[in-house]
Amino acid sequence: MKLARGEFEIMAKFIKEISGISLEQNKTYLIESRLSDLAESEGVKTFSDFFFKAKFNKILKEKIIDAISTNETSFFRDKTPFEALKYKVLPDLIDSKTSVKGSIPSIKIWSAACSSGQEPYSIAMILMDMLPDIFSKWNITIFATDISDEILRKASVGNFSDFELGRGLSGTFRDKYFTNKNGSWHIKDRVRSMVKFQKINLLEPFRGLGKFDIVFCRNVAIYFDLDTKKKLFDRIAEVLAPGGYLFIGSTETLLGVSDKFASRNYLRAIFYQLK
């Protein structure tokens, strides 16, 4: 199915409203390639008709989001942020938490736009490696969210292919934290139990989340326009604890986006800390 004159603008505006994804005019092929089959399966012959059918149909909106979203991810993606997490951010955080006597120390982390779960599971494995007594002496929360119901179902199950494990995961972590069942790799229950998955649209207000020590919001804001980025990182600042940490994508920057964070460096990694 091809976009007729004026239909790109209609669909691009609609996609932005429901997902935040901003599509330039040269992304005509993206709408056609990712939504044509879905539109045809709904029995419509034009994208205009598809828009009117989807406008008040929650299930169809979710299908459009699933189809248009790019769920590119891998274990320990880009590597350097996880080195900074393991060797700088978490040690500093652990020191500050254990200095407070009389209560069980807690760490609360949010993996926003977590896709199929590799990022929050990577964080969980790092924590388990660093804290042998993690279940008896710590209160750890890893909150993982995405806009897609389908991708969250996959993430919560924790099954991965050889190809998915081969992208970024060491053999040591594979053998320690995964079991092989019928040709697929299943993350062990003790790792999976650390991660709580929930559907959240990053465009909407963050209600009832509490405060986080660390937020990962990587490689999602690149699909948003500047105004949407500013609103997103302002809201993230509001749910970070004082001095909390923020990790964004390796090709992203907060320069000109938010003045609520100070840039920090560790080896080759750049991360941010709430001012």
Summarize the structure.
By secondary structure, this protein is α/β, with parallel strands linked by helices. It is built from twelve helices and ten strands. Helix 5 packs across helix 6.
Can you put this structure into words, describing what you see?
With 275 residues, this protein is α/β, with parallel strands linked by helices. The strands form two sheets. Strands 6-2-1-7-8-10-9 form a seven-stranded mixed beta sheet, sandwiched between helices. α2 packs across α4 and α5 packs across α6. It is globular, with a radius of gyration of 20 Å. The chain starts with 6 loop residues before the first helix and ends with a strand. 33% of the residues are buried.
Order of helices and strands: HHHHHEHHEHEHHEEHEEHEEE
**CATH-defined topology of the largest domain:** Rossmann fold
Number of helices: 12
Gap between N and C termini: 49 Å
CATH homologous superfamily descriptor of the largest domain = Vaccinia Virus protein VP39
Whole-number average pLDDT?
94
- The total count of strands amounts to 10
